[in-house]
C-alpha cells in the first residue's frame, strides 16, 4: 500500500522540539528541510486576540472566561490542523522525489496518491475547523450578547405591560358590574315605590 510511518513521522517532527534539535546536526539537506518545517510551523501558529482592559460584571466576566477558553481550545485545534496539513504537504513533497529505488512504479504511484489524498483530507478538515471557529466567535460575540440582552429586556417589558393592561381591564369590568348592580337596585327601588304608590 504505502509507507505509513513516513506520514506519522513527519507529523511527529512538527510537534516534537527535541527531534528538531537532533536533526540540525545531520546532513545539509535535512537541515534545509527542517528549517522549512520550522518556518511553516511558526506560520501555523494562530494569533488569539488578548482581551484586557475590559471591566464587566461578574456574570459577563464568567461568560468571557468561558468564551476565551473555548477560543484558545479551538485555536489550538486549528494550529494542530494547520501543522498536520503542512506536514502532509511536506510528505507529499518528500515522496515526490524518487528516493525509493527498490519500489516499483506502481508502488511509488500508490504512495504519491495516498499522500496527496491525506493532504487533501487534512486541508479539508482545516477548512471545516476554521469555519467552526468563525461561527463560534460570531455566536459568542459581544454584539450578539447585547442583542440578546436587549431582546430579553423588551420581552420582559412587554409581558409587564400586558399584565398591567389585563389587570386594568379586570378592574374596570368589576367596577362596571358593581355600577350596573347599583343602577339595577336603584331602578328596582323606584319601581317598587311606584307600585306601592299606585
TrEMBL record:
Top-level taxon of the source organism: Eukaryota
Keyword Mitochondrion (UniProt): no
SMART domains found in the cross-reference section: IQ
One Pfam family hit: IQ
Cited InterPro entries: IQ_motif_EF-hand-BS (IPR000048)
Keywords on record: Calmodulin-binding
Bias type Basic residues, positions: 22-32
Renumbered residue ranges of the record's region Disordered: 16-42, 176-198
Cross-referenced Gene3D superfamilies: 1.20.5.190
Single GO term (MF): calmodulin binding
PANTHER family listed in its UniProt record: IQ-DOMAIN 5-RELATED, PROTEIN IQ-DOMAIN 3
Family the UniProt entry places it in: Belongs to the IQD family.
Name this polypeptide is given: Protein IQ-domain 1-like
Organism: Trifolium pratense
Amino acid at each position: 500500500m504505502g509507507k505509513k510511518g513516513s506520514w506519522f513521522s513527519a507529523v511527529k517532527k512538527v510537534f516534537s522540539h527535541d527531534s528538531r534539535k537532533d536533526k540540525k546536526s545531520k546532513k545539509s539537506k535535512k537541515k534545509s528541510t527542517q528549517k522549512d518545517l520550522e518556518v511553516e510551523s511558526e506560520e501555523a501558529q494562530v494569533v488569539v486576540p488578548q482581551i484586557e482592559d475590559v471591566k464587566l460584571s461578574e456574570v459577563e466576566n464568567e461568560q468571557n472566561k468561558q468564551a476565551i477558553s473555548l477560543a484558545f481550545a479551538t485555536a489550538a485545534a486549528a494550529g494542530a490542523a494547520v501543522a498536520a496539513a503542512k506536514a502532509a504537504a511536506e510528505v507529499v513533497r518528500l515522496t515526490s522525489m524518487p528516493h525509493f529505488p527498490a519500489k516499483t512504479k506502481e508502488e511509488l504511484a500508490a504512495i504519491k496518491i495516498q499522500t496527496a489524498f491525506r493532504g487533501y483530507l487534512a486541508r479539508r478538515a482545516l477548512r471545516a475547523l476554521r469555519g467552526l471557529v468563525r461561527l463560534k466567535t460570531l455566536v459568542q460575540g459581544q454584539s450578539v450578547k447585547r442583542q440578546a440582552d436587549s431582546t430579553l429586556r423588551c420581552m420582559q417589558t412587554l409581558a409587564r405591560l400586558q399584565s398591567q393592561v389585563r389587570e386594568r381591564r379586570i378592574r374596570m369590568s368589576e367596577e362596571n358590574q358593581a355600577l350596573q348592580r347599583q343602577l339595577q337596585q336603584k331602578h328596582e327601588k323606584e319601581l317598587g315605590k311606584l307600585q306601592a304608590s299606585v
